[in-house]
Write a structure and sequence with these properties.
Strand content: 5-15%
Helix content: 55-70%
Main location: membrane
Oligomer: single chain
Organism: Stappia sediminis
Keywords: Membrane, Transmembrane, Transmembrane helix
Distance between the termini: 45 Å
Subcellular location: Membrane
Protein name: STAS domain-containing protein
Length: about 575
């Protein structure tokens, strides 16, 4: 193997150390100067300004106090950047987790959420070290669009209470079908002040996005409305009135109560956290790659996500994942390395240490307005429109995933959506395979000989009624095996030889190989010689494993050689 081949082999099959080396280490090896640090500091500050109100809003919507969101962004975000496989990934609490986190808190309490988050972190570590990150990305596009839109609807529904300033006796139901009647009954408690604050937050964000897209609209809206509500003593609930403010610092790390029975009860939640976290973080990394032309390390990224979730849980935070909006903001702000994500965590920590008392003045209605905009942005209108106008199967997968997300369970929606998408793919792939009966060839047709020469087929061989030639085209797998098997079962007894042309078969699985083996046994019993030509080495190896081998079957590299062998052996009385 020459040096060039060795280099290509190393690039295609990286070693363990290279595969799990954080991008931070790669960046430092390449050289990192003050110019890079300045760019990363500006990007980190920009992302922190975006993450500040969003982290608190997501935490409140998830059923925990706002400081939990900030802890998650600080601790989890630091580890995602420091250990991750992407140069630009920004980690923190994500809107996609609101439904799952709120349900876990309702069933198992805050301590149960912490343990479930730690278990999810362990699962993500295992997925990464087992190098399963590549497969996590095999989620059909209609599924991602469907569950993301469903989550957007659920998030908006969860904020109606704060948007309208309603008072619900007995708490707010979780399922949307129970929530809507409860909100309807609570309409008499409607607060005009809360609605005006929420509507103003939405208006400020949307106007600034159109007129000043580079300004931090969410932070400006929250700061401005906090000042207005404080100055005019508006009758609206604030972080201070409901939660008593946020602590001025990080809590000491601690472990929750860990028992086997508790872990068993939390297992479904932990699996859901890990699955959604893996999908969300890798999608975010792919978006960053598309914006920058770089490539992330999927398995290294999952390992970092696992470590970040464990660390976040130790400090009392919630689930961490890569966040698409904040990662995109980091790229657009000029971030150059994982240092920007680490600095984003440092800036958020500085806010807690310096300005924590000010957070008590933030109206909950303003944060609800922020989440309403987030929910709307999560619904990918263009993608939904394209899928609705496209193939019916994709539209069905989208609709089923969306409906299950909204009215049933997110994990169930993803599993069912992936299964439906897989069945749809198998059906489409099975339709691409064809088996053609070739009895005649034009004299202009040429054979593909082993040494690359091109010469006309022998028409007398091709038109021999004792020889039947079938050309199989496409991936030959279990989805198409019955179709091909039905054709092969109709072999006429009068033929002396059956030739199967495998030149255009890129893949063959065990079911297909067994189908060919059955045809070989049937041909042998009837005295018909079976010849296979053009099979790729891996296809031939799979056939051999299922007993499709000499002397029952002969293999040739080209169809021309197969036909010549039949005529020669037939003429010799074989």
């Amino acid at each position: 193997m020459d040096a060039g081949s060795a280099t290509r082999h190393a690039d295609e099959h990286p070693g363990f150390i290279e595969l799990f080396t954080p991008k931070l280490v790669t960046v430092l090896r390449e050289g990192y100067g003050l110019k890079d640090l300045r760019a990363d500091a500006i990007a980190g500050l920009t992302v922190a300004i975006v993450a500040l109100p969003l982290s608190m809003a997501i935490a409140i919507a998830s059923g925990v106090s706002p400081d939990k969101g900030l802890i998650t962004a600080i601790v989890g975000g630091f580890f995602v950047s420091a250990l991750g496989g992407s140069r630009f990934q920004i980690g923190g609490p994500a809107g996609a987790f609101i439904v799952l986190v709120a349900a876990t808190v309702a069933r198992h309490g805050p301590d149960g959420l912490i343990l479930a988050t730690m278990m999810a972190g362990a699962f993500l570590l295992a997925i990464g070290f087992l190098r399963l990150g590549t497969y996590i990305k095999f989620i059909p596009f209609p599924v991602t669009v469907g569950f993301t839109a469903g989550i957007g609807v659920i998030i908006f529904a969860s904020q109606i209470k704060e948007l309208l300033g309603l008072t619900l006796s007995g708490g707010e139901p979780g399922p949307i079908l129970d929530k809507i009647p409860a909100l309807w009954v609570a309409l008499p408690s409607f607060s005009p002040a809360a609605f005006i604050v929420a509507a103003s937050a939405v208006a400020i964000i949307l106007v600034l996005k159109r007129l000043r897209p580079n300004w931090p609209g969410m932070l400006i809206a929250v700061v401005a409305l906090s000042a207005v509500s404080a100055v005019f003593s508006l009758p609206v609930e604030t972080i201070g009135s409901r939660f008593g403010g946020i602590p001025a610092g990080l809590p000491a790390p601690h472990l929750p109560e860990i028992t086997l029975s508790r872990m068993h009860a939390l297992l479904p939640d932990a699996i859901a956290f890990a699955l959604l976290g893996a999908i969300e973080s890798l999608l975010s990394a792919v978006v960053a790659d598309g914006m920058t032309g770089r490539r992330h390390r999927s398995n290294c990224e999952l390992v970092a996500q696992g470590a970040a979730n464990i660390a976040s849980a130790l400090f009392g935070g919630i689930c961490v994942t890569g966040t698409i909006a904040r990662t995109a903001t980091n790229v657009r702000a000029g971030g150059r390395s994982p240092v920007s994500g680490m600095l984003h965590a440092a800036f958020l920590l500085a806010f807690i240490l310096i300005a924590a008392p000010l957070a008590g003045y933030i109206p909950l209605a303003a944060l609800a307005g922020v989440l309403a905009v987030v929910a709307w942005n999560m619904i990918e209108k263009h993608a939904i429109s394209a899928l609705a106008r496209g193939a019916r199967g994709d539209a069905i997968v989208l609709a089923v995933t969306f409906l299950l997300t909204v009215f049933a369970d997110l994990t169930e929606a993803i599993v069912v959506g992936v299964l439906l998408g897989s069945v749809l793919f198998i059906d489409r792939l099975a339709r691409t395979i064809a088996i053609d009966h070739h009895m005649t060839f034009s004299l202009d047709d040429v054979s593909d000989t082993a040494n690359g020469e091109r010469k006309p087929y022998d028409a007398s061989l091709a038109t021999d009624p004792d020889i039947v030639v079938y050309r199989i085209s496409g991936a030959f797998f279990f989805g198409a095996a019955s179709k091909i098997g039905t054709v092969l079962d109709r072999i006429a007894d009068r033929h002396k030889a059956l030739v199967l042309d495998f030149h255009t078969v890129p893949f063959l699985d065990s079911t297909a190989a067994d189908t060919v083996a059955g045809a070989a046994r049937k041909a042998s019993a009837k005295g018909v010689r079976l010849i296979i030509c053009g099979a790729a080495p891996h296809v031939r190896h799979e056939l051999h494993r299922h007993g499709v081998a000499p002397p029952q079957v002969r293999f040739f590299q080209t169809l021309d050689k197969a036909l010549s062998h039949i005529r020669r052996t037939t003429a010799g009385g074989a």
